[in-house]
Specification:
Serine Threonine Protein Phosphatase 5, Tetratricopeptide repeat, single chain
Length: 93
């Protein structure tokens, strides 16, 4: 329960575009070796909100490696589809 609340708070920070604060919280989770797929999924969302598509896709990929059923699967595909539609030079795959 506590874990979900932690992520809910971080999701709210991202939604409110308080990206620096959200990033700091996510990086703290990673530094404490408590990261799971949701950590990297949310970090990917944070990078996506900041239009940093390469790092967003990298984080989504990391989340998928941890949990192949992660919501990052759909988010990664969406990001790739957007980049393919708008600008194929923004990332290398």
């Amino acid at each position: 329960m506590e874990m979900n609340n932690k992520y809910d708070d971080i999701k709210n920070l991202i939604d409110d575009l308080r990206l620096d604060e959200a990033k700091m919280r996510l990086e703290q989770i990673i530094a404490n070796n408590q990261a799971d797929d949701m950590t990297y999924y949310l970090l990917g969302n944070l990078f996506r909100r900041g239009n940093d598509w390469k790092h967003a896709i990298d984080c989504y990929t990391q989340a998928i490696e941890i949990n192949p059923q992660s919501p990052a699967v759909a988010a990664r595909q969406m990001a790739i589809n957007i980049l393919n539609f708008y600008n194929t030079d923004m990332y290398n795959h």
